[in-house]
């Protein structure tokens, strides 16, 4: 993704629970590159329970794309955000909420980009085409890791 404009969404899910480990927190980051590729960064370990597939499906559903289009990055403390742990069904519940919230944030940012570009709300314009049409998007001049944690595609005008 180096040299590509990126829209990101990040979210955390937090719950305090008397019966379990308390508090429990999961953080997810979703990056959408100018070529339309979608990458989900989360610290949930798939140990055979299907969490990678489930989390990709949650992100895809919120973004309105196919689950196969979402690349899930395996847990790596150098690039993936914090997850309290992979325990029972907490991964789908807690990380699933963080993924959904991050995807909703990305969708809101993409909708704002579409609006400023003049694309109708109900359009099914591919993400890559949306980035291509948006003149406010300029290639990031930093490493891919740095680009993930900031928005490099900014509107040309600020909302009132």
- What series of H and E elements makes up the topology? EEEHEHHH
Strand order of the largest sheet: 1-2-3-4
- % residues in beta strands: 15-25%
Uncertain spans: 142-160
Total of DSSP H or I helical runs spanning 4+ residues: 4
Overall 3D shape: elongated
Task: Calculate Rg over CA atoms.
Answer: 16 Å
Beta-strand segment tally: 4
Write the layout of secondary structure elements.
Blueprint: E1 6-15, E2 24-33, E3 38-42, H1 51-63, E4 70-73, H2 90-117, H3 127-133, H4 144-148
Parallel strand pairs: 3-4
Antiparallel strand pairs: 1-2, 2-3
Helix pairs in contact: 1-2, 2-3
Q: How would you sum up this structure, described in words?
A:
- The protein is an alpha+beta fold and 160 residues long.
- The chain has one domain: Aldehyde oxidase/xanthine dehydrogenase, molybdopterin binding domain (Aldehyde Oxidoreductase, domain 4).
- Helix content is 33%, strand content 18%.
- It contains 4 helices and 4 strands, in the order E-E-E-H-E-H-H-H.
- The protein has helices at residues 51-63, 90-117, 127-133, 144-148; strands at 6-15, 24-33, 38-42, 70-73.
- Strands 1-2-3-4 form a 4-stranded mixed beta sheet, covered by helices on one side.
- Strand 1 (6-15) and strand 2 (24-33) form a beta hairpin.
- Helix 1 packs parallel to helix 2 (90-117) and helix 2 packs parallel to helix 3 (127-133).
- The chain is elongated, with a radius of gyration of 16 Å.
- The chain starts with 5 loop residues before the first strand and ends in a 12-residue tail after the last helix.
- The relative contact order is 0.23.
- Mean pLDDT is 75; it is low at 142-160.
């Amino acid at each position: 993704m180096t040299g590509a404009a990126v829209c990101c969404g990040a979210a955390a899910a937090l719950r305090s629970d008397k019966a379990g480990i308390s508090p429990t927190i999961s953080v997810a980051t979703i990056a959408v590159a100018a070529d339309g590729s979608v990458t989900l960064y989360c610290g949930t370990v798939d140990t055979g329970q299907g969490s990678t597939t489930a989390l990709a499906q949650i992100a895809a559903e919120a973004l309105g794309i196919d689950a196969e289009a979402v690349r899930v990055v395996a847990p790596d403390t150098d690039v993936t955000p914090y997850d309290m742990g992979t325990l029972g069904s907490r991964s789908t519940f807690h990380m699933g909420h963080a993924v959904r919230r991050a995807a909703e944030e990305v969708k809101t940012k993409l909708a704002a980009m579409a609006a400023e570009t003049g694309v109708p709300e109900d359009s099914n314009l591919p993400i890559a085409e949306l980035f291509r049409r948006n003149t406010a998007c300029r290639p990031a001049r930093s490493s891919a890791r740095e680009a993930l944690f900031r928005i490099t595609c900014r509107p040309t005008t600020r909302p009132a």
